[in-house]
Amino acid sequence: MNDEIIKRIIKIRNDFKLNQANFASKINLSRNAITFIETGRRNPSDRTISDICREFNVNEHWLRTGEGEPYIQLETNKTIAISASLLGQHDPLFESIVEVYSKLNDFNKEVLLTIMEDIVNTYHSKKE
User: Fold this and answer.
1) What is the Cα–Cα distance from 13 to 23, expressed in whole angstroms?
2) First-to-last CA distance in the chain?
3) pTM above the 0.85 mark?
4) pLDDT single digits (tens) 3-44
5) Residue 121: CB atoms within 10 Å
6) Structural domains in the chain?
7) 9 or 81: which leads in pLDDT
8) Which listed site, 22, 62, 76, 92, has its alpha carbon 20 to 30 Å from 1?
9) In sequence order, what DSSP letters do the residues of the chain get, joined into one string?
């Protein structure tokens, strides 16, 4: 097992402040499976790598090789357009969201934007 990919998997788990059990549950593995991967006793399968990348918005090339940026940059234009349309309304909930968002660090902003974009996309797909 490549020690560097182990370090990158641990980095992802730590970036999201997850213990092994919580990290494992997000990618449908047992805590023991994560322990075995992180200690080098088991190689992550292609599916596990794919699940990590999907769940945590990770650049798969970076995870496998260490090259490039760890996290995929979001397409913000769509999110910005949606947010701008809401700014014209007096909505205490939306104003609270904006206030809290403005206090987040860059990493947490990207995580939140990913979640918001998923919510909007899911909402629109249910309306159609």
Assistant:
1) 6
2) 46
3) no
4) 899 999 999 999 989 999 999 999 999 999 999 999 999 999
5) 11
6) 3-65 (1.10.260.40), 76-127 (no CATH)
7) 9
8) 22
9) --HHHHHHHHHHHHHTT--HHHHHHHTT--HHHHHHHHTTSSPPPHHHHHHHHHHHTB-HHHHHHS-S-SBPPP-HHHHHHHHHHHHTS--HHHHHHHHHHHTS-HHHHHHHHHHHHHHHHHHHHHH-
